[in-house]
Specification:
- About 35% of the residues lie in helices and about 20% in strands.
- The protein is α+β, with helices and mostly antiparallel strands.
- Strands 1, 2, 3, 4, 5 and 6 form a 6-stranded antiparallel sheet that branches.
- Helix 3 (about 85-95) runs antiparallel to helix 4.
- Mean pLDDT is about 85; it is low at about 215-225.
- Pfam families: DUF2895.
- This is Integrating conjugative element protein, PFL_4703 family.
- Keywords: Membrane, Transmembrane, Transmembrane helix.
């Protein structure tokens, strides 16, 4: 009789052990599930475009080339007025508001009001683009100044073209110094985690020397030009 009692006690102890193990597994599963649920769904990592030489970076580090690309992209889109500056400029400000600091947005709203009141936007078509030979790859150290881990000054050398109807009314070669800050606030609306903080200084007109004449256009030796 005692043997059967011992067997029953052994089985009951085994059942208790299984219950404890099952409870521990359930707790671990809940912990893992909570960790998976609370983990970020998206993680932005800036990778240099040229990986031939390899790259090792901290995931929160933003390389200068990414800062330059961001500043040029946002500034170019701000200044793209395909049909009418009076409509396109405020539409751009609204569409790109997630990429602008509040102070910059206020500054650009004031700029829009000033240009509108002076008649500089009505029926104006505008676009800006890099001056050939003045992009990031031509002189990287001169294009992005690292102020801190969260602040940069980007220098853009751009051609600004404006048209009124079919007539070109403006072509200017301008150097813009733009402030960029880290703003990883809303990845859903701003996946870059950066924001344009407007100008670090007034825009400056620049002069670009004309390209050299091609070799085929040179006068032959011994012949007067």
């Amino acid at each position: 009789m005692s043997r059967f009692k011992n067997e029953v006690a052994h089985l009951q102890a085994h059942v208790r052990t299984l219950r404890v193990g099952a409870a521990a597994l359930a707790i671990l599963a809940l912990m893992f599930g909570f960790g998976w649920w609370s983990a970020p769904k998206n993680l932005t990592i800036h990778v240099p475009p040229d990986l031939r030489s390899g790259s090792t970076r901290r995931w929160w580090d933003v390389p200068p080339e990414s800062v330059y690309t961001f500043a040029f992209y946002v500034f170019q889109q701000l200044n793209r007025w395909p049909t009418n500056g009076e409509d396109d400029y405020p539409r751009n400000l609204h569409a790109l508001s997630s990429y602008l600091t509040p102070a910059c947005q206020t500054t650009l709203q004031q700029d829009f009001a000033l240009r509108r009141d002076s008649g500089e936007l009505r029926q104006r078509v505008r676009g800006v683009y890099e001056i050939p030979g003045r992009g990031y790859g031509d002189d990287p150290t001169a294009r992005v100044k690292v102020v801190s881990n969260s602040n940069w000054i980007v220098t853009l050398d751009l051609t600004a073209d404006e048209y009124f109807g079919a007539e070109q009314v403006k072509r200017a070669l301008v150097r813009y110094a733009l402030k960029v800050v880290r703003a990883d606030i809303d990845p859903e609306k701003n996946p870059f985690g950066l924001a344009l903080d407007c100008y670090a200084g007034p825009p400056q007109r620049i002069a670009v020397p004309p390209p050299p004449a091609p070799a085929s256009a040179a006068a032959p030796q011994g012949v007067s030009p």
